[in-house]
Amino acid sequence: MKVVFVTPRYDPSAIGGAESAARLLAEHLAAQPGFEVEAYSTCAVDHLTWKNELPPGRTEMHGVAVHRFAVAHERDEDFFHCDARLRRSPRHVTFGQSRRWLELNGPDSPGLLEALGDTDADVVVLSPYLFSVTVDGIRVSSAPTVLHCAAHDEPPLYFPAIGEAFVAADALCYYTAAERRLVQRVHRVAEKPQIVLGIGVGEPEEGGRPGGEHLGIGERPYLTFVARIDTHKGADALDRFFRLYKKRRPGPLALALVGPVSTTIDPHPDIVTTGPVEEGAKWDILRDALAFVHPGALESFSLVIMEAWQEGVPVVVNALCEPTREHCAHSAGGLWFGSYRQFEAIVDRLTADAELRRWLGANGRAYVREHYQWPALIERYARFLESVVERGRPASR
Amino acid sequence: MTEARAQPLPEPAEGDEGLDEAQLYLARVMAEIDEEVLRRRASGDLPPRIEHELDELFLRFSPMAGRNGSIEEALAVVESTSFVDPVVPVRSSKSGGAVVKKAIRKASIWYVGWVTAQISQFASATSRTLRAIDDRLEALQSDFDSQRVPAAPVIETAWGHRPGAWWVGRVEEALRDAKGRVLHAAAGDGWLVRLLAQGGLDAYGVEPRVGRIDRAEVEGLDLREEPLVAHLRAVAPDALGGLVLSGVLDAMTAPERDAAIDLASRVVADGGRLVVHSLSAVGWAAEDAPVEADLASGSPLRPRSWVALLEAAGFRSEIVEGPGARDYLVIAVSDGGGEEAATRR
Fold it and tell me: Is A229 helix (H, G, I), strand (E, B) or coil?
């Protein structure tokens, strides 16, 4: 079976949860007997500019044939005005307005769409939902399509032109049951063939050094957040919360913000920003953390939470983020905060109670082993794709 | 807080084993944290202005439902923004800027303070009013909840809900030419979905009971753990070629059943089949009927009641009696206009 994955960016240097998840799935699927996997993507790496940075053409990555197509133009400044206007009342946006938003959001890659229209693939997988190559890709694909929504409860999910993609896709793949509930609250797509899959977690690839050594803080205890350090991920809120916490609770506890930084984090003696780090360093930092804190409210899965649990580290998440809170509640592997007060009480509790930390971490690890191991997960996914291919692409679409 | 641990930690969960106990313990930990938060808030150890500012920052990138859906969360946003700070920040990146700003602030504080005090008063009055409305709604909700009828249980018998049951062949026959997907509820472990799929139908199932579908999902069947009505609400109009309901309708109250039938008439396409398997009064009262039958708020309809009900919903029905008159099957064909029929009703 030939499967084509379509993502706006396909490169390890492109930071994006949904795109990384699609890349991991593509690579694991490519290792399955009987599967030929290709990826169609753009030459862009930065989703804010859509600048062509990688060469167009075919290349090979971990068993996947990657075809990159040029983006016709960089992101238009008008997008930000349009986005700000439509976000105010997303439920009242017209089809035309949301179509305009989608065109401005891009990436506009006519070559990619043309290739999709002519593809000889048995099935096309597209992710995430809010880009024009996804929405238009579903429309033009000659093969049955699977939309990996990666949906968050955010304004564009409510736009009519985006809703069209959910309806036109032949099948849907969700990361969590919470994501499915969210999509079904907004769009009538419950009858579509679908699967709640998640993402598999590989074995830790530790670098063999203490986490504190990577961070330059020696043996001090620390909380960590590993992700893109930006406002949308909740990094600003975490930064402010932790500064106040340290003002009220002086002591050795530090905060390590690990990943590319795209917001302003003022220097602070207890806050370390590392920028991007190697895989080995990331695992070392995770392993030795007192707890992993994910302040983001707009997550559809969060692979790094699974990685923290894989290391037996307890997790603290944003109470307003249904998928990550559901992970914590189901696994009994983490706690959640909805205000500074709760954050403070949780950090107090975790720093003081090593037994609780171990218990939460052990529950999280068991949850990952039960639900998110690659071999079982990829077998389920392969069966699902086979059923989508068997069903074909209905003419009434 | 560590010292306050009332009970020792349970063993960590291993897969499903011990998970219930672990989840309960986690809920207790969260409740203790919430209590601690209330205690600290009452102590007034953090200026409200700072707390509001941080909560506002926290909510800035909250989900849509958080901003527009939940009253509690919407109120939190209103409250966090209802204080207008008259003390303007004076930090500046320019040399001497801070001094100039500070002078302007000092000179205008009486004026800014007067304006902001009025705005804050108005915002605070609005916020208090909204909170009073919310309190009233919560009281009403609480009254309503105490009288709420619990969700109808699934009523199944060992003889009537299995692959060899007499009615299964009739269902396969009725759905043979179904155009579009076929839904079965309550799907249980997927026994009927499996049979229908083997017969070449594009079948899937929903099951409201927790933990029933896990094995079948691994096997690759399309099953969802969801209540029937919630699922039907999220299905596109005319999307289904067939809908088989067994064990889910008998115990429903009249309004619940009406809602399910209205939704069924909306989602079953013109010419599609709605098949209802129901216990009869005999089967319902039999010694081997499940205990839930005694405890349920509703009870099965007589066959001719189904015919009348479904006719009003835009279906033409026929009844097939089962052996021993313990159960029966209603096979109904949609004659289109389900949405109109639902409106008429």
Answer: strand
